[in-house]
Amino acid sequence: MGLLGRRSLQRDSGVWIVPASAVHTIGMMFSFDLVLIDENFKVVALRELVRPFTITRPNFRAESVLELPAHSIFRSRTQIGDQLVIERYEARKPSQDNGDGRTGLEGPPLDFGPAGPHGPIVQIPPQSSRLDSRSSRFADTKTR
Fold this sequence. Notes:
mainly beta; four-stranded antiparallel sheet; 23% strand
């Protein structure tokens, strides 16, 4: 489903669609950037400013796609061949109160972490059980 039905995409957010090698934007109301990655989380293609009511061409080397806010590729200097570092994601159990004012979740909130040596760390929960056996879940784009 991706971004369909949303009116915008917040600057520090995104959607990881697994499996996918192309997307359509029929019914969407905003442009976004698209990063296509292979099974080893290597960037195999980039699509900047994908406009509403378009269909991207499939890239058969891509295993999944990241839908990111417009201009994210430019700002992060992401290039084809960059390796994404994905850290393991563990589902959080519901709780009544974890002591920090948030209720209903255990563990840290899902959002962007502080910038590391290769840029911001973007936490992306898994979207498919196909990759659940992998030891990785969070993305950190590594630029050259």
